[in-house]
Structure formats: C-alpha cells, structure tokens
Amino acid sequence: MYRWKLSSQEPCSMTCSIGVSKSLAMCVRFDGIEVDDVYCDALTRPEPVHDFCIGRECQPRWEASSWSECSRTCGEGFQFRLVRCWKMLAPGLDSSVYSDLCIEAQLEHPPERRACKSPTCGPQWEVAEWSECPAKCGRRGLVTREVRCSDETHACDEATCPASTKNCTGPPCERQWTASEWGPCSGICGHGKTVRHVYCKTPEGRVVPESQCSPENKPLAIHPCGDNECPPHWLAQDWERCNTTCGRGVKRRIVLCVGITGGKVQINEDEECDSSKRAVDEDTCFERPCFKWYTTPWSECTKTCGVGVRMRDVKCYQGRELVRGCDPLTKPVNKQTCALQPCPTEPPDENCQDRPTTNCSLALKVNLCSHWYYSKACCHSCRNLRAS
C-alpha cells in the first residue's frame, strides 16, 4: 500500500564547477501520490544518495591585494595594490588568468592606485641614482644624476640643491680582451663567416662588462671564410649594446671591407667594396621604459643619542608620472639606523645640592658615589670628587 521512493535530486551545491547533489526518500502510496512519512516503515527508509553534479561554468572575478604604504612620508602621495583576474577552473583549483577574461565579462576593474595624504611637507629635492662612470681605464671622468624638486609650484631652496655631477675613476687597466676558438665556417667565399666569443676579463679570469676594456683594441668576433682566395666584400660585426639603459637610443656595429688572400684575412679600404651593398652600421634601439628611483634627503634621526632611525621617501618615476615599473631589486633603502653618541645614564645637574639628611662626607670616604642612591643624594660632593 505504502512504500519509500527516492525523490528527484536537489539543486547542485555549486553554482559553478563540480559540486554535490543529494536525493532524499519520500513516502508514496500505491498510485504514486506523496503522503506523510508516518505511513511508511521507518526501519526500511533508504539512506540519502549523494551524486556529483556539474554547475554552470565559473565566472572570472577581480581580486585585489592590500594597499601599500603611502609613497611619501609627508604631503600627498599614492598607494598601490596588485589587481589580478581569477577564476575557479576546477574544484580546489582557483587560479589567476589573463585579464582579458575579466574585461570580456565587463567586470569593473578595481583601482590599482589611490591618493594618500600625510602631514604636509615643504618642497624637497629628489635625486636619482648616479650614472655609470664613462671614463676609460685609468682615466678620470664625471658621473651624473638627475636632481628635481618635488613641488612644481613652489621652488626648492637652491642653496641646499644636491650635486648633479661628481668625479669618477675608470676601471683598472689590467682588464684584457680574451677570445674563444673560431667556430665552423657557415658557407662559401663571400657568404661564409666564422664566429668566436670575445670577453673582457680581469687577471683573475672574471668576466666583466665590455665597457671596462678598451674598445680600440677589441678583437674581431666575426671573420670571413670559405676559400684561400676571396675578393673583398662587406662583413658586419655584431651590434654593440644600445647606448642608453632605458628609452630610445642608438646602437652601432663595425662594418668592414674584408677579403682573404693566401688563406689570411685582409682588411681593405672601403673603396674596394661595392658601396651600394654596404650594411648599415647604425640603427635606433629601444630599451625598457625609463623608470627611475628617486630619493628625498634623509630625515633627522629619531633620537638625539644612542641608536635611532632615519627615513626618506623612495619613489619611482617615469618622467613626471609616479609609476610602479622600477626594478624592486635596485630599490634604494628608505630606512636605516643612525648611531649617535651614547646616551648619558643621568643628565648632569650643575645646580644639584647634597641632601642634608645624608652623611655625604662618610659616603665619599667609603667610595659610595657609584651607588645610585648616593650619586643623587650627594650629587654635589660626588661631582666634585669626579672633577678632581
């Protein structure tokens, strides 16, 4: 007459990805109509059945990190945070994905920068890092750095302007060029070339930047090859580094008129090669955007004696724009300890008087001035003893 029947499944427990649904037992009579559970035998009631189910695909979302500290210790600055697009790819697999997914879903992008304000400060000089010394080995030169005022509307004090140039000395002259063995020839005369690696090294064998060796005597890294006799033709060396560390600059390379005579490489005058086939020896180049760290002067030490802390603002600029693109590995420190003279345990009191209730003459005889009580109670007598 009455029996248990498993109900249809409940909605999936997950709105996206894979979840769990549950089927419950209900009591029905002979014609399938649901009735109250008391009509069925409770001992034979089936256990709920759990099945995996698939909800709709998870939608992407923006996730933001916490805000950074204010970029300035005084005045108006900025706080930054990292905003990334995330999506549930599978149960337990929540991952960052391309920002395009959040953009296509027309989700509002949370701000990555906001203004912050600390106590007002006057205009301050801000300086970038010093440039690399351009002097050749054993020579003296000048390094430069950019100096700017933090406030465009109020001029900084010119009398306190930091130096923008200073003397520098080039690297030691014992740096020498070294070269590897020549590689295989790549083709026939006029088209073939053989390549080797050329390094600038210290006497200890450590490889250093090429700028530390003299460019005038750098060995060629590319030679012609292919025949014992090869008429003059143009041969280009590898491009040198871009002449700027950031932004747009110029790169150059050596282009020579070379040939092979009797199996030996000959460098000829340019007129002996076809000028219309000469490869370009100069081209524009672009390094990473010009992001630079700037620092303000150090603040006063937080203490007047002992060990304290001093601070400065460290900001990243691209032109006049405050940005986040600077290399964190080269970020200057913004906080350091400052050690001053030791703090006295008790400031001297020139007007101190001995307490009349204390026998200070006896304290002097038995050498009690080092005791904290007598050094205060007999400060006048103890001070005279130390002075003598």
Q: Strands, helices and their partners?
A:
Layout: E1 2-6, E2 18-23, E3 25-29, E4 49-54, E5 61-64, E6 76-80, E7 83-90, E8 93-97, H1 99-104, E9 113-117, E10 125-128, E11 140-144, E12 147-149, E13 165-169, E14 176-179, E15 193-195, E16 198-201, E17 207-208, E18 222-224, E19 230-236, E20 248-252, E21 255-261, E22 264-268, E23 282-286, E24 292-295, E25 307-311, E26 314-318, E27 321-322, E28 335-339, H2 360-365, H3 372-377, H4 379-387
Summarize it:
This protein is mainly β. Helix content is 7%, strand content 34%. The longest helix has 9 residues.
Structural summary, described in words:
This is ADAMTS like 2. It is found in: Secreted. InterPro entries: ADAMTS_ADAMTS-like, PLAC, TSP1_rpt, TSP1_rpt_sf. Residues 348-386 form the PLAC domain. The protein has 388 residues and is mainly beta. The protein folds into 6 domains: 2-54, TSP-1 type 1 repeat (Single Sheet), CATH 2.20.100; 61-117, no CATH class; 125-169, no CATH class; 176-286, no CATH class; 292-339, TSP-1 type 1 repeat, CATH 2.20.100; 350-388, no CATH class. It contains 4 helices and 28 strands. It has helices spanning 99-104, 360-365, 372-377, 379-387, and strands at residues 2-6, 18-23, 25-29, 49-54, 61-64, 76-80, 83-90, 93-97, 113-117, 125-128, 140-144, 147-149, 165-169, 176-179, 193-195, 198-201, 207-208, 222-224, 230-236, 248-252, 255-261, 264-268, 282-286, 292-295, 307-311, 314-318, 321-322, 335-339. The strands form 11 sheets. It has a 5-stranded antiparallel beta sheet, with no helix packed on it. Strands 5-7-8 form a 3-stranded antiparallel beta sheet. Strand 7 and strand 8 (93-97) form a beta hairpin. The mean pLDDT is 83.
